[in-house]
Amino acid sequence: AFFKLPSDSFKYLGWCDIEDHDVRGNQLRCPRVREAGPSEEELFFRGEEHTLKKRKQVTDTEKWQRKLQENWENCAELNLSFQDLGDHYQVENFKRILQTLIRVEKLWLVDNSLTDLSAIRLPRCRELNVNKNHFTSFKQLPKIPQIQHLSLAENNIMTLSGISDFRHTPLESLILKRNPCEFQEKYRQLVFSSLPNLKTLDGIPKLPEDCSPPDIRFFFKMCTIL
């Protein structure tokens, strides 16, 4: 037999939609931020029309109050992983929130089926984890000028093209495990030559053999004066 839990009528609501609390976004470490649930037609089809009574038309004043309650602008550390962004409107709302993270320093976006965040800027982000997404290029990552630790494991990055964009950032550690580019010939040498300030790649510190040997062509261009 199917039994409804007391919380069933709230399962498609965000915390901002629940009355009588003063919790703000910057107080939450792992909030659920995807927009609430299926259409009314789908809810009727599922036999979940009881959740509709909690939905109501939102006024401009309530929208402003919600923005104040979200308070994403003051988040310094935030985990937005595993959001199950199955619909286009949920992805758009997710990106709207990312655009407000002007003070975030540590951000986790693991397993969200993300493909392109190039329009997003995270000016203070020092640590970013976007493991298990669908990025195919470094060009699809957000703008992260202060990045120190970047984890891109289990994406679909084919080549190292674009990695030099991080040359002028304080990037110290990079994880590219289980990306196709990891199988490129002289992979570690190529990464460290593109990022001379990098200290650790895939959890392994920079080794002497990771330093590219001098280009032999350079010596043919030299002349010796006796």
Short description, anyone?
This protein has 226 residues and is of the alpha/beta class.
Walk me through what this model shows.
With 226 residues, the chain is of the alpha/beta class. The protein has helices spanning 40-46, 60-70, 88-99, 187-194, 216-220, and strands at residues 77-79, 106-108, 127-129, 149-151, 173-175, 200-201, 204-205. The chain has a seven-stranded mixed β-sheet, covered by helices on one side. The chain folds into two domains: 8-71, no CATH class; 74-210, Leucine-rich repeat, LRR (right-handed beta-alpha superhelix) (Alpha-Beta Horseshoe). The protein is built from five helices and seven strands; from the N terminus they run ααβαββββαββα. The protein starts with 39 loop residues before the first helix and ends in a 6-residue tail after the last helix. Helix 4 links the parallel strand 5 and strand 6 (200-201).
Query: How would you sum up the major sheet?
Result: 7 strands, mixed
C-alpha Rg (nearest Å): 23 Å
Q: How much helix is in the residues?
A: 10-25%
CATH superfamily of the largest domain: Ribonuclease Inhibitor
The total of helices stands at: 5
List how many beta strands DSSP finds: 7
> How much strand content do the residues show?
5-15%
Report mean pLDDT, rounded to a whole number: 81
